[in-house]
């Protein structure tokens, strides 16, 4: 979306979703990882959904990153991503839960050990 010089977008965010205010699924979180499935976009895809699909072409981004790159609110990108997921054009993976992350102290001890080997 292009914006005015004062930073306000020319097109309000709710128009990018076609007036849809709530996503079709509530499973998308801010750190959900979106990946394009690589299929060709169907004809008649709204411009904002097409922009999100083009952004995900050949890679994965979180919902927050997509919102920042598209300069849209997270809530609007959540609606767009849910619609694309429903169509099978985007796959969404939930974020890694905190409990599954490695222990920070263990990582620091490993890093210290590697630094000691280097000296």
Structural account:
InterPro entries: DUF742, WH-like_DNA-bd_sf. With 119 residues, the chain is mostly helical. The protein has one domain. Helix content is 41%, strand content 9%. The protein contains five helices and three strands; from the N terminus they run αβαβααβα. Helix 2 packs across helix 4 and helix 3 crosses helix 4 (74-86). The longest helix is centred in the last third of the chain and has 15 residues, at 104-118. The model has no long low-confidence stretch (mean pLDDT 86).
Features:
5 helices, elongated, three-stranded antiparallel beta sheet, mainly alpha
Fraction of helical residues: 40-55%
Q: What composes the largest sheet?
A: 3 strands, antiparallel
Poorly predicted runs are none
Radius of gyration: 19 Å
User: What structural class results from the helix and strand content?
Assistant: mainly alpha
Short description:
The chain has 119 residues and is mainly alpha-helical. It is built from five helices and three strands; from the N terminus they run αβαβααβα. The protein has a three-stranded antiparallel β-sheet.
């Amino acid at each position: 979306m292009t914006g005015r010089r004062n930073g306000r977008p020319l097109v309000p965010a709710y128009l990018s979703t076609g007036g849809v205010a709530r996503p079709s699924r509530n499973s998308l979180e801010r750190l959900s990882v979106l990946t394009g499935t690589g299929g060709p976009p169907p004809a008649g895809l709204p411009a904002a959904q097409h922009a999100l699909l083009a952004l995900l072409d050949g890679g994965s981004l979180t919902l927050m990153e997509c919102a920042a790159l598209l300069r849209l609110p997270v809530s609007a990108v959540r609606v767009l991503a849910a619609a694309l997921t429903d169509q099978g054009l985007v796959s969404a993976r939930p974020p890694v839960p905190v409990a599954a992350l490695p222990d920070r102290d263990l990582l620091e001890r490993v890093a210290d050990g590697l630094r000691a080997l280097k000296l």
